[in-house]
Amino acid sequence: GENVEQHPSTLSVQEGDSAVIKCTYSDSASNYFPWYKQELGKGPQLIIDIRSNVGEKKDQRIAVTLNKTAKHFSLHITETQPEDSAVYFCAASTIQEYGNKLVFGAGTILRVKS
Amino acid sequence: NAGVTQTPKFRVLKTGQSMTLLCAQDMNHEYMYWYRQDPGMGLRLIHYSVGEGTTAKGEVPDGYNVSRLKKQNFLLGLESAAPSQTSVYFCASSYSRGSGTSGMEQYFGPGTRLTVT
User: Which among B48, B108, B111 has CB closest to A45?
Assistant: First the structure.
């Protein structure tokens, strides 16, 4: 089955700097890669996602890049702000006819120091 | 819309006790999922449902049962709780497999923190 590894487990950056979180996946059939942000005491919330037919996607200060050959994808946050502090999870899945079974990475704790 | 709601928010069980976690969504989503979240392990899929009356096993289904009698509700049951089931449980729902990325997004509830002593 699919296995997703996420690095680093913790990341501290100064406000205004960029943050990069990387994930690798094992199943070459995976074709959907979402990123979730989880704040303390809350459920995960989707912040950006990408499908395997696209190499990069941007949404304001966040972007995701995908390298299918190397089977890795990354989250980039620019101009970090204190409110970006949270746990970030990557995930991978194969879009199936029924359901969308996500396999998550272990998470990255991002701390933005002001 | 309330989105995805979960009850209860917290629960403490003794080993061997049973309980049911309730998930409800008001977005008319077809698909619903139950995950558990443990420190250092991300979220792992327990069971999921692709429609009313249907359920399927996920990555870690042992010790859990589910039912989807109504489209808007998805129940997770623990028949005989064990300390290894101490975790935070999240329910999620999504519209469909979708085209492009629309419809793929899973919306998560706020979670239920379960402790089994």
Answer: B108
Size of interface A-B (CB pairs under 8 A): 73
B92: which chain A residues are within 8 Å (Cβ-Cβ)? 43
Strand partners, B73: B24
Out of A41, A44, A49, the one facing B104 most closely (by C-beta) is A49
Cβ atoms A3, A102 nearer than 8 A: no
- Residue B106 makes CB contacts below 8 A (sequence gap 6+) with A34, A46, A100, A102, B33, B92, B93, B94
Q: Tens digits of per-residue pLDDT, A51-84?
A: 888 899 999 999 999 999 999 999 999 999 999 9
**Which own/partner pairs from A59-67 qualify as long-range (CB within 8 Å, at least 24 positions apart)?**
A62/A35, A64/A33, A64/A35, A66/A33
Is the pLDDT at B35 greater than 80? The verdict is yes
The answer to whether A2 touches A102, Cβ cutoff 8 Å, is: no
State the smallest CA–CA distance between residue B33 and chain A in angstroms: 9
SS3 content of chain A, % helix, strand, coil (to 5): 5, 55, 45
- Secondary structure in 3-state letters for chain B: CCCEEEECCEEEECCCCCEEEEEEECCCCCEEEEEEECCCCCEEEEEEEEECCEEEECCCCCCCEEECCCCCEEEEEECCCCHHHCEEEEEEEECCCCECCECCCCEECCCEEEEEC
How far separated are the first and last CA of chain A, in Å rounded? 41
